[in-house]
Design brief:
Number of domains: 2
Number of helices: 9
Helix content: 55-70%
Low-confidence stretches: none
Mean pLDDT: 78
Order of helices and strands: HEEHHHHHEHEEHEEHEE
Strand content: 15-25%
Distance between the termini: 32 Å
């Protein structure tokens, strides 16, 4: 847990004030009232045994308080509610057991015993205080995170508006160029313009909801892969596609798969070399999505540079699908990336 200086000072004030009230209020053994020259004077006698037992109870309460505080802050870390409840009960039972043991040991040596309601009331008080404090702390952190995400979203929307002109301009320019190409004399060039135009059309018409059917994403990367293959001689790059399941029923964040395909072409292909890129996609009825892409590792081409793109993909996954995704990378004779997303 992160502690600010202000929070540390407030914690010290809380423990000093409550500790003083408990020690001074429950350690009184007896009182005497004397009348001297018509003036009443009260003398308070405190029990060293009670002071010692109260100090032990405060030590137990420190353990209970910060244990419960750490447990409650788990609400801000998306911890499960039932786990927090069971941990709270376990901490409280442990504190009661320690308080009972301390009370049992205090009976030896003719010491004045601490009343049971006080012995068990002190842990309950600090347990309640830690629960309220932890819940407030978790709520505050959740609100801060929500505001940060909202601010990031606003920045992204502003950046999208700033760059919106460029895709539209390129899309219209490509369509104009495509009209100038003689498709009979140069069909490969015409096909390249058509594929690139299709890619830009997909990017421009991303819906406000931010998600598209998985099948649309697959069609998008098919066009991208076909455009990339045009850079090579025929037969140099082969792409094996395997798809299964109903990919129209699941939705996915647009562009999430593109960096994985980009890396496969960037680091898994080479001029005058035979390369095979294998892409497997499965869409399950349980609303689970699996995507695997593998490419060969050619001598002289380092795959160390793939870290930046994969790191950006991890960050997007953590933001969009927290706790619902798995991204695995295997490096041997093949460079393989496996992405699994649950509950989409």
């Amino acid at each position: 847990m992160h502690w600010s200086k202000k929070e540390i000072i407030l914690n010290l004030i809380f423990w000093l004030s409550t500790g003083w009230l408990i020690l001074s209020g429950y350690s009184i053994q007896s009182q005497e009232i004397e009348l001297i020259n018509g003036v009443e004077t009260t003398r308070v006698f405190r029990s060293q045994s009670l002071l010692l037992q109260l100090a032990v109870q405060l030590a137990i309460s420190v353990f209970l308080f910060y244990g419960q505080l750490y447990n409650m802050v788990g609400l801000g870390r998306r911890a499960k509610g039932d786990r927090i409840i069971w941990v709270s009960l376990a901490l409280l039972l442990l504190a009661f057991g320690m308080a009972h043991l301390a009370g049992f040991l205090s009976l030896s040596g003719n010491r004045l015993p601490l009343p049971g309601n006080i012995r068990f009331g002190i842990p309950v008080f600090y347990m309640a205080a830690a629960t309220a404090y932890g819940a407030a702390k978790a709520w505050w952190r959740s609100e801060q995170r929500r505001k940060e995400l909202e601010l990031d979203k606003r920045k992204a929307e502003l950046e999208l508006l700033r760059n919106q002109l460029q895709p539209h301009f390129l899309f219209n320019a490509l369509n104009n160029l495509l009209a100038l190409v003689d498709q009979d004399r140069d069909p490969k060039l015409a096909l390249a313009f058509e594929k690139l135009s299709s890619l830009l059309r997909y990017v421009i018409h991303v819906p406000e909801s931010g998600t598209r059917p998985v099948q649309d994403e697959l069609d998008f990367i098919r066009n991208y892969a076909a455009l990339q293959c045009m850079r090579f001689e025929e037969g140099e790059v082969n792409i094996n596609w395997e798809t299964s399941g109903d990919c129209d029923s699941l939705t996915l964040e647009p562009g999430l798969l593109l960096p994985l395909v980009e890396n496969a072409f960037k680091y898994g292909t080479a001029p005058e070399e035979q390369s095979t890129i294998k892409i497997t996609c499965s869409c399950w009825k349980e609303r689970s999505f699996n995507f695997t892409i593998s490419n060969p590792v050619h001598p002289g081409i380092s795959v160390e540079g793939t870290g930046k793109g994969l790191q950006a993909t991890r960050q997007r996954l953590d933001l969009l699908y927290p706790g619902k995704h798995e991204l695995q990378i295997v490096k041997n004779e093949q460079f393989t990336v496996r992405l699994t997303i649950h509950g989409i």
